[in-house]
Design brief:
heterotrimer, A alpha/beta, B alpha/beta, C mainly alpha, A: six-stranded mixed sheet, four-stranded antiparallel sheet, 9 helices, C: mainly alpha, 2 domains
Chain lengths: 246, 304, 368
């Protein structure tokens, strides 16, 4: 197996006495769609922040795209894309302005940027609304656009925090088509979700419980292991024993 | 008498905007647990705000507990309970202070209706002196529900109480709604999660301001118009691609591990199995399956 | 009524638990009084004064000694060339210079015109003005004293009398100003922000869907700030009396009553702003830009209104702080009674009623 794109080794984050993320160890391979599941407060967000170079680990190490998150957070940030349900695009900028702005932030030069913008608008079928404010678009479109913008600079990994929350069933599936497409191009997808059917679409799924990594495997093997009919049941079996809330 | 009656309610924000809620009608019986199910932006919150008298409709009529939402708004306000989608308690007040404050706003005392919230409140009682802002997400939600219930409302409005909540907590929350229903409280609850529909007595599917269907969850699923097959055992992209190529397959979508393929009546299990084998997927498994709420929703969305 | 009491209690909790705001709330008046009273006063002490003495005679020596003796100046006697003097001004070493001509005493004695030249650095016009006035006053004083001994009288004598504040101290002017400023800030901004916060966090949505009367929400919000502001008035008055030596000359109760009126005016303005806005940021900005700035500019305690162009003078009438400033000055410094301030009181009362009526009418019992 090639060098993993994410390597977490006993990654830990403490806030005072509270251990938010407790020595989690895992690898993610290049081009993988990696589901990062857990109950509210299990420590997902904290772990993700560390992997994105936004928060320094209390102990342990993590390498993302070949860079140590503690010592080279800026290099990590240059090589990843990030999208969350809450913040992703500027609502009062137009579609085209958002693409230009975020492309610019990652240092895309003008001719490249223009070409990428055209490609993106064509792929999403957004040419007609390129001049519209993002705020006026339906949520599903926004999320698809936000994802495309997050991978505009061809990052090695894209982190997605509940990208499909509240999105209609069609758009949700179209969104996952985009994820597959990105993964096929070699972009590693690291995604959290509360939809358990989406967990099935991941190559591998990890489930965090009380700050620890309680399970990590392919959806099929997890179901076999826990004798469960669906990922929903696997999740329920594991997370039901959780001691702490958010 | 119906607890909630909605007739042709329409509401647009500003001129030239397409209506957020467009000619919606349905009714909720007394004591029913009624679900309003649809994605973000479908108009759920707007409809809620109209019913709890926070917004005036552009057209149409509605009553809550037999009271007109426009003329008798003050009476409605003293009888309903409302929990907005956003956490709306005072973060700098303690758990107990919040509860007592909201009780007093409704001219009630905590002791009067404590039995109603006992199960719920006992869970957060150990933290009663903690400020609400320092509670975990699940606890906040429980406290918010306690505050909405403390005056024993006849109708309870819960706007997306489970959005962003993990599956385990969601299950617990719905268990609790079931108990409240047995206390005789009418509950109108909205959610974007289709799988929660099964927990309701009746549901309305809502999309872009329109109601697609109002039915019991069982009725809705039974009314799915096509034979439906769950297809698995092979990689999803390949499956979906082959299924889309079959002339008798009406639709095919991924549903977790399985693809759901809806077909015309001429399409049978054996036909599909043979087709997939010939199409290079001999390992594919085909079995007839019942439609889920999400199948129904997608089918209705497509037809509208 | 019990509901209202509980609501007010809740508002107090909000205020008292927010340590930072509390610090600002009670620290600000003290800070402002101290800053304005001591640091920013345009009173001048021990300014460096350069004397260029071409006369070197009895009269100049006596005058120089007198300037030096005053607490306003520290005399630095040097015979600088005009060029060197200019350079000193440019460096900012020197704020004011006094030039005595040659044969000063002789000219004076012979009834000729004896001119004293005062040169001041007018890049800070206020200070320059004050300094030249002080120098002239001292020179004139000296001259008039000498007149009794030395005949004949000569020249023009300017007599200036500073009313109410004969020592020309800054504090008496600043105390009423700071009072107006602090009350404006606390009441307008805090009330506006605290109501808008409930809109922003969604708690107002829940309150609206309850039997609680929306108007009472407003009342409950206003009460704590009224009380807190009275505490501020008290602390300012105490500081003023004991730390700055500016006691209340007139009736204390009249002053307090007028303060309650002004506080109510400010609260009604805060409520008005909160009704019109939907985010804390906007409410804060409007309170600061729309209220604080005009209060500083147009209340008359920093910049004399009489010197402003007419349009600005007209605008100044719309600033409630201007009227309160006049009232406080009249009662506190001049020791006047209600008869002197009834007009201003009426204007404030009118403004308050106006804003309250508009606010209550505009207060939305629904969203959007």
């Amino acid at each position: 197996m090639a060098q993993p794109i994410i390597q977490a080794d006993k990654l830990t984050k403490r806030f005072g006495d509270f251990v938010a993320t407790d020595a989690i160890t895992f690898d993610v391979a290049r081009g993988e769609i990696f589901g990062f599941l857990g109950a509210n407060g299990a420590g997902k967000t904290t772990a993700m922040r560390m992997l994105c170079g936004l928060s320094t680990p209390s102990s342990g190490h993590a390498q993302v795209a070949g860079f140590d998150v503690a010592t080279h957070p800026e290099d990590v940030k240059q090589n990843i894309g990030y999208m969350s349900q809450k913040f992703s695009l500027y609502e009062n900028l137009t579609v085209a302005e958002n693409i230009t702005f975020f492309g610019g932030i990652y240092g895309l030069r003008n001719p490249v940027l223009r070409e990428k913008r055209e490609q993106l608008l064509t792929r999403l079928g957004l040419h007609d609304v390129a001049g519209k404010h993002v705020g006026s678009l339906p949520l599903g479109w926004k999320q698809k656009l936000a994802f495309s913008v997050a991978i505009l600079h061809d990052p090695k990994i894209v982190f997605l925090d509940e990208p499909t929350g509240g999105v209609d069933p069609f758009t949700r599936r179209q969104f996952w088509d985009l994820l597959y497409h990105a993964a096929a191009q070699g972009i590693t997808v690291f995604v959290t979700t509360h939809y358990m059917d989406e967990a099935e679409y991941c190559n591998r799924v990890s489930i965090m419980v009380d700050g620890r990594l309680a399970a990590l495997d392919t959806p099929r093997r997890l179901k076999e292991l826990y004798g469960a009919a669906s990922m929903d049941d696997v999740f329920y079996t594991l997370a039901r024993g959780a001691q702490r809330g958010e | 008498m119906d607890a909630i009656c909605v007739e042709n309610i329409t509401k647009a924000y500003g001129k030239g905007q397409s209506p957020a809620v467009d000619g919606i009608s349905f009714s909720v019986g007394a004591g029913e647990l009624f679900g309003l199910i649809g994605p973000d932006g479908a108009g759920k919150t707007t409809l809620f705000r109209i019913l709890i008298t926070l917004l005036l409709p552009d057209a149409g009529h509605a009553t809550v507990g037999g009271l007109d939402i426009v003329r008798e708004y003050q009476k409605i306000r003293s009888t309903v309970g409302y929990m907005p989608g956003k956490f709306s308690l005072y973060t700098d007040l303690t758990v107990e202070e919040n509860l007592h404050f909201f009780a007093s706003v409704f001219n009630a005392r905590v002791s009067d209706n404590y039995s109603l919230i006992r199960d719920l409140y006992e869970q957060i009682k150990p933290f009663k002196d903690r400020r609400a802002g320092k509670l975990s997400g699940g606890m906040k939600q429980k406290l918010a529900l306690c505050c909405a219930l403390i005056h024993r409302p006849t109708v309870l409005f819960l706007d997306e109480p489970t959005t962003g909540v993990d599956p385990v907590s969601r299950k617990e929350f719905w268990d609790m709604l079931g108990r409240l229903r047995s206390e005789g409280i009418t509950i109108l609850v909205s959610t974007p999660y289709m799988d929660e529909a099964a927990r309701c007595d009746r549901i309305a599917l809502i999309q872009q301001g329109h109601i697609l269907s109002v039915d019991t969850p069982q009725g809705l699923r039974a009314g799915y118009p096509h034979p439906l097959y769950a297809v698995g055992g092979a990689p999803m992209p390949a499956l979906l691609q082959r299924l889309a190529g079959h002339p008798d397959v009406v639709s095919s979508y991924a549903f977790g591990e399985w693809a759901h393929a809806a077909g015309t009546t001429t399409l049978g299990e054996g036909v599909l199995q043979a087709y997939l084998r010939d199409a290079g997927l001999p390992e594919a498994i085909v079995q007839a399956t019942d439609a889920t709420i999400e199948d129904c929703f997608m089918d209705l969305m497509k037809r509208n | 009524m019990q509901q209202l009491a509980l609501f007010i209690r809740k508002e107090f909790i909000h205020v008292l638990r927010d340590r930072r705001t509390l610090l600002i709330l009670f620290g600000m008046p003290v800070m402002q009084i101290l800053i304005f009273g001591f640091a920013l006063s345009n009173e001048v002490k021990n300014a460096r004064l350069v004397v260029v003495d071409h006369g070197r005679d009895v009269a100049t020596t006596a005058l120089i000694a007198r300037l030096d003796a005053s607490r306003y100046f520290e005399v630095d006697q040097v015979a600088l060339s005009p060029k060197a003097l200019e350079a000193a001004f440019r460096r900012g070493d020197v704020k004011v210079a006094v030039v005595f001509p040659a044969r000063f005493y002789e000219r004076w004695q012979h009834g000729q015109e004896a001119t004293v030249q005062i040169i001041a650095d007018a890049s800070d016009p206020n200070t320059a003005n004050t300094l030249t006035q002080y120098v002239s006053a001292i020179v004139y004083d000296h001259a008039s004293e000498q007149r009794g001994v030395q005949a004949p009288p000569y020249g023009i004598r300017v007599e200036t009398r500073m009313l109410y504040n004969p020592q020309l101290e800054g504090a008496p002017n600043y105390v009423p100003g700071v009072m107006a400023l602090v009350l404006m800030l606390v009441c307008v901004m805090m009330t506006a922000v605290s109501i808008v916060r409930e809109k922003e966090t969604g708690t107002l949505e829940v309150l609206l869907v309850s039997p609680f009367r929306p108007v009472l929400v407003i009342v409950a919000k206003a009460v704590p700030y009224l009380l807190l502001s009275l505490v501020n008035v008290g602390s300012i008055l105490m500081l003023s009396t004991w730390a700055l030596g500016v006691p209340v000359q007139g009736n204390l109760f009249l002053l307090l009553a007028e303060s309650v009126l002004f506080i109510t005016t400010c609260l009604s303005l805060g409520i008005f702003i909160s009704v019109q806005t939907s985010s804390q940021q906007v409410a804060m900005l409007i309170s600061l830009m729309g209220m604080l700035l005009p209060t500083i500019l147009f209340s008359g305690f920093m910049f004399p209104i009489e010197n402003m162009p007419v349009p600005l003078q007209v605008i100044s009438n719309l600033v409630p702080a201007k009227w309160y400033y006049i009232i406080v000055k009249s009662i506190m410094i001049k020791g006047l009674g209600f008869a002197a301030v009834w007009k201003e009181t009426l204007i404030l009362a009118g403004m308050t009623a106006g804003w309250l009526i508009i606010s209550v009418k505009r207060f939305n019992i629904r969203l959007a």
